[in-house]
């Protein structure tokens, strides 16, 4: 049972980590020219990818819906973090309560990561495989540009 649970936690953590990396990566695709991670509003990126106005609108809608959810989920993470800190700072430590609160915090963090990953999936669905690959290529080039001294 414990081994099965450990594997599940490891898998959940790995998926969350990969999802967070991908979402962070999406936010940097067009570099400094982007506004709040909205690379689909960057004319140069739109032209290079050949995005239609409908695709741009779909990305914007997905972003807005996701952003609303992210705000709420980030708030939930902060509340759960506060509750855990309160328990840990209490004069008498209640191990069971702290462990349960930690689990609630991890659940909130997972929900946040899952929402970010859902946005990544929506981006992939809207732009398709080839243009998604181009986004990854843009990301690599941007990363190289940032690492190269002027």
Tell me what you see in this structure:
The structure is a single chain. The chain is an all-alpha fold and 150 residues long. The chain has one domain. It contains 4 helices and no strands. About 12% of the residues have low confidence.
Quick take:
The chain is 82% helix and 0% strand. The protein is mostly helical.
Kindly state the number of beta strands: 0
Report the span from N to C terminus: 55 Å
Gyration radius (Cα, Å) is 19 Å
How many individual helices?
4
Integer average pLDDT:
83
* Largest sheet descriptor: none
Order of helices and strands: HHHH
- List low-confidence stretches: 19-36
Shape designation: elongated
Helical residue percent band: over 70%
The share of residues in extended strands comes to: under 5%
Would you tell me the structural class of the helices and strands?
Answer: mainly alpha
Query: How many domains in all?
Result: 1
List the helices and strands and how they pair.
Blueprint: H1 2-27, H2 43-49, H3 53-89, H4 95-147
């Amino acid at each position: 049972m414990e081994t099965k649970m450990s594997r599940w936690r490891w898998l959940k953590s790995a998926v969350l980590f990969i999802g967070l990396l991908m979402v962070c990566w999406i936010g940097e695709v067009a570099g400094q020219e982007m506004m709040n991670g909205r690379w689909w509003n960057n004319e140069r990126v739109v032209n290079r990818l050949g995005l239609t106005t409908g695709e741009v609108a779909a990305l914007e809608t997905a972003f807005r819906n996701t952003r609303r959810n992210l705000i709420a989920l980030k708030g939930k993470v902060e509340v759960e973090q506060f509750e855990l800190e309160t328990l840990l700072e209490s004069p008498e430590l209640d191990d069971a309560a702290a462990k349960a609160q930690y689990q609630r915090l991890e659940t909130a963090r997972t929900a946040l990561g899952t929402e970010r990953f859902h946005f990544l999936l929506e981006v992939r669905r809207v732009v398709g495989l080839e243009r998604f690959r181009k986004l990854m290529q843009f990301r690599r080039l941007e990363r190289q540009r940032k690492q190269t001294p002027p």
